[in-house]
From TrEMBL:
It comes from the Bacteria. The chain crosses the membrane at residues 36-56, 68-91, 103-124, 136-157, 184-202. This is Uncharacterized protein. It comes from Planomonospora venezuelensis. Keywords: Membrane, Transmembrane, Transmembrane helix.
Length: 208
């Protein structure tokens, strides 16, 4: 009897099913690096410029207008959201049913979450002085991101995504309590760097 005609044992059959399932999952899963790299760059550069505007003691380290710093930050975050949406779109064609619906609802959650954040920040921001208004916008946006990262990690059982979201939540809370300069620094280094590391870890796991 040829090797191709040999009846597989239950253990070999199970191992073959697992290998085929892993291969299929690898083909269907989009590369996570563009998503995490886009957010990492957005936070590192955007919050880095904001940090130069505020400084740790309230004295600016560079003559960067607040409007320019905020426009850069939220512009880069908008680009990161677009790249994230394109990454999720890769799942649309090969995946049907529950997985597609789950991804679609998760994508809408980002849009609705930032819309709610914008409405809250506009309403209460006008009651605060300039530096505190800026901190309100920045901390609310990062809170939305942190919660959605943790939710995404729980939905798809992606531990690095959940851990990154939890880390963002802690850094955001600590930075908000410490003040605008510290918040911008923690978000630039911690959130930006952490996002890049999470993407590289996920890519390594996909290739394993």
């Amino acid at each position: 009897m040829d090797d191709d005609e040999r009846v597989l044992s239950p253990e070999e059959t199970l191992r073959l099913i697992e290998q085929q399932g892993a291969t299929a999952a690898h083909r269907l899963m989009p590369d996570p690096v563009p998503h995490y790299l886009a957010w990492g760059v957005a936070w590192f550069v955007g919050f880095g410029v904001l940090f130069l505007h505020h400084g740790l003691s309230g004295t600016p380290y560079a003559p960067v207008p607040l409007g320019v710093a905020l426009a850069l930050l939220f512009g880069l975050m908008a680009m990161a959201m677009l790249i994230s949406a394109m990454t999720m779109w890769q799942l649309r064609s090969p995946v049907r049913g529950v997985s597609q619906e789950r991804g679609m609802m998760y994508g809408f959650a980002w849009g609705f979450g930032f819309f709610a954040m914008w409405m809250i920040a506009v309403r209460f921001g006008q009651l605060l002085p300039g530096s505190e208004r800026n901190l309100l916008w920045a901390s609310l946006s990062m809170m939305v991101v942190a919660v959605l990262y943790m939710a995404g990690g729980a939905i798809w059982l992606v531990r690095p995504m959940f851990v990154l979201g939890a880390g963002l939540a802690v850094l955001n809370a600590v930075g908000t309590a410490a003040g605008p300069g510290w918040h911008a620094l923690l978000m630039s280094v911690g959130a930006g760097g952490g996002s890049v590391v999470a993407g590289l870890v996920l890519r390594r796991r996909m290739r394993a």
